[in-house]
Amino acid sequence: MSTNLALLIFGIGIAGLFFLDRDNSVRVSKALWLPVMWLWIVGSRPVSTWLGVGATTGNTLDATLDGSPVDAAVFAALLIAGLIVLVYRKKKTTAYLAASGPILLYFLYCLISVTWSPFPEPSFKRWTKAVGDIVMVLVILTDGQPIAALRRVYSRVGFVLFPLSVMLIRWSDIGRGYDPDGTPENTGVTTNKNELGLIVFVISLGVLWNVRSLLIHKDEPHRGRRLAAQCTLLGFGITLLQMAHSATSVICFILGAGLMFVSSLDFIRKRPSRVLALSLAVVLGGGLGLFFGGGSAISESLGRGGGLSGRTDIWAASIAVAQNPVIGTGFESFWNENAARVNHRLHLLGFRDLSGLNSAHDGYLQIYLDLGMVGVCLLVLVLISAYRYASKAFEQNPELGSLMLACIATGTFYSVTEVGFRILTPSWIFLLLGAIGSSGAASGLLGGQAASALASKSVPASEIPDRSKLFPETERKTVYTTRRGITSLASSRSTDLK
After folding, report:
1. Nearest-10 crossing angle of helices 398-414, 426-442
2. By the 8 A CB rule, do 332 and 123 touch?
3. Could you tell me the residue ranges of all domains in the chain?
């Protein structure tokens, strides 16, 4: 089958998935397309690459300093539009920011570190994109129907990226390539197999959450066709995880799915602290195993061979050339300044030329190299706060809390062998979503127990709270809600920006 014919067929299939998943009973803001487009870009390739215009020459470090004007314009437009939306939703935005102190402190330190970066202008531009990650997360969470908005983000991103990846891998050379060692790999809509595995596992966790909700709540509107669309999308995700051969992504998906499953068990729901303890034990146990004694065994079990595929050598060489262990080189600046030194040390160990290396292949080490021990401590503070709020969110709403905890736990684990805390990285964006979303849920910004009660099919109609009190800033629209055969009048409201 030709590429053009395959593209046509898959395009019709994508439209069919959107059609099956439609749900007019709950309206979300049109502004939700902003984070969806943001994730389409960071989860695939730069816009300049897709268009073949304004692209930089390869992925060299010198090219990353200048960047592409086309990509800069696209990100700037999305960022400005997102900020405008948040200005309209200033009350909710302020409340979320007030509950996210550690994250704000971390980002403030990142901004300050720009001042000692050897490349202050490119470093500042990268920081603005990092702010864009937070803006898009807040656009989702401040929607008038935040939980519905979150579900649709997962669906809309997956409906486009997953089928296109399969099409490009099977019927186009664009979706296949070679790693630096010349080994064939499937890349789909991304540029390498690890990036493909990353976007697939983070979106698949959300899709699994959607499927689980539809299976539990049998009174959901249009449940049959929506379940068909979500199961189809989940099938695409599992297939792509196998095609990507990204061991870390597979492990993270299993970890996140396991946490969501375990959290549904009665003995966990009655003692929410147990799921938090379990997630921390898995993450810490796996991370410590990679560093102490079990590194080679675990690496080989993941299909990487001993030494984590040379990662330990890269870690040692990077630490050796770090010039300021306290405050680091500056935000996202280490590799532009020190790649040649790291490459020289690796060359002495017998490595091929790695002059284009721009990653430590460890999220925590990357923070140390860019931001020093101060940055690492602030990141740890962010993670501790995120887990604490996730535990509280789980107590109030186990279904939502399980997803938040999965986002945080998988992001924490993924960064042990990959750079998961970097800007414009899906693992970092969804970790921020889990952290900020958990703080909002724990503070009642996502509806708290009232929202959970609305989702319960056993609540009498007389006890269903007025949705206008839950979401007071939106415009009213009358809909009918059915709970165990009892039809009652409820209030649901929406606008384009609020």
Report:
1. 150
2. yes
3. 461-493
